[in-house]
Amino acid sequence: MPLNAVCQWPRLTPQPLANTPYQPLCFLAPTSPFCPVPLPMRHLLASALLLSSALLSACSSPTSTTHTAANTAVSDASATTSASAPAESSEPQTAMPDISSPEAALKAALEQNILYMGPFTPYTGSQARIYGSTANGCIAGAASLSDKGEDFQQQRWGRNRHYAHPLMLQYLADLRARSAQFDQPPLVIGDLSQPAGGPYAYSNHSSHNTGLDVDLPFIFVQPRLSEAELNNPRDNYIVQGQTVRESFTPEIATYIKLAASDPRVDRIFVAPMIKKHMCALYEQDEYNGFLRKLRPWFGHRAHMHVRLNCPSDSPECVLPQPIPEGTGCGYEVDSWFLPPPPKSQQVAAKPKPKKELPAQCPLILLQYQQQ
Length: 371
Ligand SMILES: [Zn+2]
Fold this sequence. Notes:
This protein is an alpha+beta fold. It has two domains: 4-111, no CATH class; 139-340, Muramoyl-pentapeptide Carboxypeptidase, domain 2 (2-Layer Sandwich), CATH 3.30.1380. The protein has helices at 4-7, 44-59, 77-80, 102-111, 166-181, 227-231, 250-260, 272-282, 331-334, 361-370, and strands at residues 129-133, 136-140, 143-144, 152-154, 163-164, 187-189, 213-217, 239-240, 243-244, 265-270, 294-296, 303-308. The strands form five sheets. The chain has a four-stranded mixed sheet with strand order 7-12-10-11. Strand 10 (265-270), helix 8 (272-282) and strand 11 (294-296) form a beta-alpha-beta unit. The chain is globular. Residues 1-94 and 114-118 have low confidence and may be disordered. Bound molecules: zinc ion (ZN).
């Protein structure tokens, strides 16, 4: 089994992104003082299940202080190959697995000999490193999205908001590949992160700090938007209050479903009415697990905000609160449309503590400012 198969979440595109060299998982490296004996591959699954937490922690940088990547495990071909696993072939694999539901994604992962578990996405594909949370953090070694190809166009390129963790760029490439299967046009990308992440100085973003967030506008244009249209984007509001507008097309519903049906996604913020409509469309489906990832939030009527899970090779990446179980349809989303409680019953919001960036961030941000 090639090492890169265990280093990243299911490869959905045939070619890796350029300039993202793969590295073996650290506990496979015989030079590591923590992993002196290369483990036979066939024993890896059992060992990894027991030792993943300790090993990942031990193999991370000695400066790591807040490691929580406890649920990452990797399996070996001999341990988990199912009867339906594709035969080894020298032909390049161009067929993309079905990841339209968490169940299908898990099956695809098993067929690719990857066992995905837990909030951290197995990943060691880059030198990028995240510190802190999406709302209070930064990233060293972020990669830049290229919109020179045919797959992406980014709005407001000049604002320097096209940087992300390579995991995000891979996610976008895979999302594009899957949406192309539905004959959808190239993706229009909104804000990612700044070169070193960090808080936006002039923006209404409270997150996008660590290269794991992206805004995806509900815009489909074939073949390309003009430079002027990209620099002065026109928002496509697909809902209004409790009304679903005509512009909420089946194509957009499919796009949202594709975006959410990827295990690398932690959550996607959408307007409550978008969530409600997606529930109406898909809740009765056998594979409706992706609905859980759609989180109702204020705004987000003209774009969805996708947030990825922390990659496992950034142990200082702070995980967000887990999202509740279940699809979130029914009462949970309906509660957004209830009238607010009378003033006498409202609980005063506690003042938020002042944010302090992780200790590594000021220097990382300064370095990028000086470049
Ligand atoms: Zn956003």
